[in-house]
């Protein structure tokens, strides 16, 4: 009896059984004027948007002048996926009475499968070119979506793994603005890092 | 500089005009990373860069250096690493970075080194060493990859000594080969290596003579002293190699049920020790291993008054000492722990089964009352150790600097080598 996102959204994630969740849709407007719809629950994964909704500024749609349409659609996709996942976890936790041996196993298998799905979704979301990745980071930073920011920053950090200084500069096209003396000093100072 | 540049131009274009780096003209991508990766965002990225790559990250540009420094200042990586030296079919070394929670496999050193099967404990970090009749060779870095510091062998032939580095001195305690003792020589003999030579000092105190070897003793080295504790009885004492004298001998036994004791340096500031004790509690199938920590004053070896002792969370001690399903009555077996650490924190492990994993402990720092340990964290077993269950494992603990990580990757060292102890 696998729990699908559709089922999850219709059951309560509140501690009180029987509470209704708002199915209200929020309109988000990208920097190039395109409108996107998202459930309130998904939109609230952004702390920035959450505050705007709570302050009552969201009724006519929320303009996001820093986020282009291409990125906004990816962000919304992320929020939809992860909001549903958070809900599933709550659902399992909230119904301990329902869990008999078989049910529990089925639920566990389902959530293990869903976790795998989520991981591969996350991986494919950030498997993009550098420019898009940086746009995602900026958007996640601006919208305060911690999970997405962590994910994207981790991807950039992974790209740095096992690279030399020159290689890192090459990948990110960073100009070396050290003077020769400064560069030598940094190389000599590396022992400081953990002993500060 | 002679060039007038409009203030609004990004810095990288200025460089291009000065003829520093050639780059594709008019290409969009050169600008992107430099424009986006700075400030908080760059710090978030750098935060996630594992230790071996931080040296590269710090050298990229001024902004990257600033970001690395800021990220390290915000979340300092002060805890020592757990270094596992494995002597199986091949020698292998793995190191655990407590900040990123990841194991790093160290490349085998290029030069042939003798088999390092002993440890020299030190406040600046443990080092592996090889002891033979002809000499004592101590590894130059915590990962055992750089050249050894060679010293003369101690005067007394020792097969299982306690070795400790205190400041610039090396101390060898006990472990003398009983069969080879000459007239008047003492199995519990102590020697200090200073200025290229070993000097005999007062032997170990009487309470510790019965257990005067590394197998029976737990060792903690601070900047001034070597502390020894008998792992079974809890008798402890300390030795100061610069004054060449022994401190008081005390029986540390705050809990009679404890079957093994271990000591590690206490927090920085005062001379302090942390005492760990493991015992089995409970009846029959419900018995479990409980590991606790006490604070001990370094000078008097008194247990700190009123210091609430901390117990390791039971799910962690259960993973260190899992129930053996086949064992009829494992309530009979005594849990035996090993401890290694420094003034910021360290590791506790099951000394009979080091492959079960370890528990990281972080010490409370100054000004906080209420016990020695601030937090405990589970450390999974190193993959290379799990792959070779019959190998002999030596666990050591040491801070690891970026220089040493560069060395371990087989790259040439970046700066002046750290000063060595006396080379003979």
TrEMBL record, chain A:
Q: Where in the cell is it found?
A: Nucleus
Compositional bias per record (Low complexity), positions renumbered to this chain:
1-15
Q: Which UniProt keywords apply?
A: Nucleus, Ubl conjugation pathway
The domain of life is Eukaryota
Q: Give the pathway.
A: Protein modification; protein ubiquitination
Q: Which InterPro entries match?
A: SKP1 (IPR016897), SKP1-like (IPR001232), SKP1-like_dim_sf (IPR036296), SKP1/BTB/POZ_sf (IPR011333), Skp1_comp_dimer (IPR016072), Skp1_comp_POZ (IPR016073)
Q: Name one Pfam family in it.
A: Skp1
Q: Which GO terms describe its cellular component?
A: nucleus
| Domain spans labelled SKP1 component POZ | 24-83
Predominant place of localization: nucleus
Instruction: Please report the stretch or stretches of sequence annotated as the SKP1 component dimerisation domain.
Output: 146-193
What the entry lists under PANTHER family is as follows: SKP1
Annotated function: Involved in ubiquitination and subsequent proteasomal degradation of target proteins. Together with CUL1, RBX1 and a F-box protein, it forms a SCF E3 ubiquitin ligase complex. The functional specificity of this complex depends on the type of F-box protein. In the SCF complex, it serves as an adapter that links the F-box protein to CUL1.
**What is the protein's given name?**
SKP1-like protein
What is the source species? Aegilops tauschii (Tausch's goatgrass)
Give the classification, highest ranks.
Eukaryota, Viridiplantae, Streptophyta, Embryophyta, Tracheophyta
UniProtKB/TrEMBL annotation, chain B:
Q: What is this protein called?
A: F-box domain-containing protein
Q: Determine the domain of life of the protein's source.
A: Eukaryota
State the InterPro entries in the record: F-box/kelch-repeat_ARATH, Kelch-typ_b-propeller
**Which residue ranges are recorded for the region named Disordered?**
1-26
The protein's matches in SUPFAM superfamilies, at most eight in alphabetical order, are given as: Kelch motif
């Amino acid at each position: 009896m696998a729990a699908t996102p559709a089922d999850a959204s219709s059951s309560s994630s509140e501690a009180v059984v029987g509470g209704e969740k708002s199915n209200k849709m929020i309109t988000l407007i990208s920097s190039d004027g395109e409108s996107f719809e998202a459930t309130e629950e998904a939109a609230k994964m952004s702390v920035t948007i959450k505050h705007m909704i709570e302050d009552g500024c969201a009724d006519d749609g929320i303009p996001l002048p820093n986020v282009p349409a291409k990125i906004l659609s990816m962000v919304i996709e992320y929020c939809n996926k992860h909001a549903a996942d958070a809900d599933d976890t709550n659902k399992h936790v909230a119904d301990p009475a329902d869990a008999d041996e078989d049910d529990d196993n089925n639920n566990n298998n389902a959530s293990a499968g869903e976790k795998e799905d989520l991981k591969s979704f996350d991986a494919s979301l950030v498997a993009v070119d550098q420019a898009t990745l940086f746009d995602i980071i900026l958007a996640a930073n601006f919208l305060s979506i911690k999970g997405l920011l962590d994910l994207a920053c981790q991807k950039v950090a992974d790209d740095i793994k096992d690279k030399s200084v020159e290689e890192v500069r090459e990948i990110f096209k960073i100009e070396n603005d050290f003077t020769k003396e400064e560069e030598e000093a940094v190389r000599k100072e590396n022992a400081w890092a953990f002993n500060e | 500089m002679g060039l007038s540049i409009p203030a609004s131009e990004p810095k990288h274009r200025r460089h291009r005009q000065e003829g520093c780096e050639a780059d594709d003209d008019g290409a969009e991508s050169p600008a992107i990373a430099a424009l986006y990766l700075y400030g908080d965002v760059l710090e978030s990225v750098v935060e996630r860069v594992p230790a071996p790559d931080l040296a590269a990250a710090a050298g990229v540009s001024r902004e990257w250096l600033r970001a690395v420094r800021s990220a390290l200042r915000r979340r300092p990586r002060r805890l020592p690493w757990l270094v596992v030296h494995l002597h199986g079919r091949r020698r292998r070394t793995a190191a655990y970075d407590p900040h990123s929670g990841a194991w790093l496999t160290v490349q085998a050193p290029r030069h042939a080194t003798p088999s390092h099967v002993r440890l020299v404990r030190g406040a600046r970090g443990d080092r592996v060493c090889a002891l033979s009749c002809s000499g004592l060779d101590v590894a130059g870095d915590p990962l055992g990859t750089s050249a050894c510091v060679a010293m003369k062998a101690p005067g007394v032939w020792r097969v299982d000594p306690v070795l400790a580095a205190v400041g610039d001195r090396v101390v060898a305690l006990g472990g003398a080969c009983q069969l080879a003792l000459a007239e008047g020589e003492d199995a519990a003999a102590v020697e200090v290596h200073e200025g290229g030579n070993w000097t005999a000092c007062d032997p170990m105190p009487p309470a510790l003579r019965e257990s005067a070897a590394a197998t029976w003793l737990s060792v903690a080295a601070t900047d001034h002293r070597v502390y020894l504790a008998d792992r079974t009885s809890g008798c402890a004492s300390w030795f100061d190699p610069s004054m060449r004298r022994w401190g008081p001998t005390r029986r540390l036994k705050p809990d009679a049920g404890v079957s093994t004791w271990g000591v590690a340096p206490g927090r920085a500031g005062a001379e302090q020790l942390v005492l760990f004790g493991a015992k089995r509690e409970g009846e029959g199938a419900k018995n479990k291993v409980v590991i606790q920590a006490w604070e001990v004053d370094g000078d008097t070896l008194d247990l700190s008054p009123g210091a609430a002792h901390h117990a390791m969370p039971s799910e962690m001690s259960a993973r260190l000492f899992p129930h053996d399903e086949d064992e009829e009555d494992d309530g009979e077996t005594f849990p035996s722990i090993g401890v290694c650490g420094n003034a910021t924190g360290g590791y506790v492990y099951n000394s009979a089964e080091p492959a079960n994993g370890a528990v990281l402990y972080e010490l409370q720092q100054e000004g906080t009352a209420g016990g020695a340990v601030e937090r405990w964290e589970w450390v999974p077993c190193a993959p290379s150790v799990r792959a070779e269950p019959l190998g002999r494992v030596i666990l050591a603990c040491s801070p690891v600097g970026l220089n040493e990580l560069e060395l371990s990757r087989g790259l040439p060292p970046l700066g002046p080598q750290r000063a060595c102890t006396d080379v003979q």
